[in-house]
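Help: read this over?
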Amino acid sequence: MGARDVDGFDHHVLKSLLGAWALAACSAQESAAVEEHLGTCGPCADEALRLREAVGLLHPEESLDLDPGLRTRVLESCLGRRPPRIPLPEWAAPYDAETARLDALLQDIGDAEWHAPVRLRWFENDEPVSRKTTVAGVIAHLLAVDGLVGTALGLQDPLGAEAPPVPDPTRRTEAFWRASHFPPTRAVRGPWRDQTHELIRTVSFAGGGSGRLAVGYGTVDDAGGEDGQRVELPLRDSMVERAFECWIHAEDIAEAVDYPYEPPSPRHLHHMIDLAARMLPTTLAERRRSGRAAPSRELVAAGAPGRSLRLEVEGVGGGEWFIPLDSPGASGSAESEVAHIALDGVEFCRLAAGHVAPEEAAAGQLGDREAIRDVLFAAASLSRL
């Protein structure tokens, strides 16, 4: 029966891994244990053959590319039939989905493609900037910045002693690139994948209440230095932000290796759009303090509403947001609307990622031109390395 343990896995655990193994969704350790077990357990070997044949029906042999969404669809179907014993907080679902999709893409690319050039793009001081790296370098970047969430949850920092004293995403990336093989190799996929699994596992056990935990992203002042206000996001927003960056950089990788890649599901895309829209008032206020946005026109009268801009995001995952223009703590409203921007949801996300210039983003603009420009540039200012 092959009942002996293999690398600490008993028969029942190994049998439960057969479906994931057939989909190439196991870790290297799990795959090795399953394959050793199949050599001694006839029933499991028969089941593994049946599952691999089923995967073959889903995926014709003449194509070498598995559908990147296959793993996500299978997992969603399984969870829909049998709810998990430890449910994943709803705000962590986009990160779970986007890391799984990127991992499926990485599974399909060849050794040489890990060194394919990738140009990371963002906006800095209202100008487009870029940094050249490789596919492996992008995964190293995601590993380093995801580590900020991990350390907030009490997990081991992937940078270890190389971590800079200031929890800044750019500094962490540069430190990791310097400390690793340069350029990084495909070996970075294992630590990145393990960390994503550990993050999902930890927030699942911690429960939905952990969403209020603060995740630090360093400090900035009005001139872009490090002696000013501390930058923090609650864990629930930080997980959405990490899902957003995972998707954007997965598109960067897919473009570099000439591979098709779809946007997130409408529900997850809405989470990302909503986070960016909620961050706009604070970003706009920071730009105003540094002289890069028009001065506030907040009314002096007590209780008088400030101006609002209506942001209409069209397409799947979209919606409508009223952005307060004069005070980040105010609530926008239709009654105080002075301008209106309408644009596609994916386009808005690419604007927030620094992949689309503010001047080219909005499909429709109406009202106060100065307010429209300030909000579009504030959206682009959300981007960073």
Remarks:
- Confidence is low (pLDDT under 50) at residues 60-64, 221-227.
- Residues 11-63 form one domain.
- Strands lie at 117-124, 127-134, 214-220, 229-234, 308-314, 319-324, 337-344, 364-367.
